[in-house]
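Internal tracking record. Fields below are filled automatically when a chain is submitted to the structure queue. Please do not edit lines marked as system-generated. If the sequence contains nonstandard residues, flag them in the REMARKS field before resubmitting.
Queue: standard
Priority: normal
Entity type: single polypeptide chain
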Amino acid sequence: MKMSVEIDCTPAEARAFLGLPDVTELNEKMVAEMSKRMEANMAMASPDELMKAWTAFGVGAQEQFRKLMTAAAESAMGGNRPK
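SYSTEM-GENERATED OUTPUT FOLLOWS
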C-alpha cells in the first residue's frame, strides 16, 4: 500500500506545526553582524593593504623558505655540503 500526503504551507507554518522555534530574529541579527564584519574587512582586501601585509611578512618568510630549501638539499645529498 502506498500513500501520498501533500501539505501546502509556508516554511513558517511548517516550523510552527512541527514545534520548531522561530529563529527569524536571530537570523536577522546574524546576517547584520556578518555584513558589518565583511564591510569592515573589505578595506583589508585592497591592493595597498595586501602589499603592506605581504611585505611585512615576506622578509622573514623568504629567509625561512631559503633555510627549508637548504636543509632539503643537504638531506638529499646525504648531508654533504658543496664547498
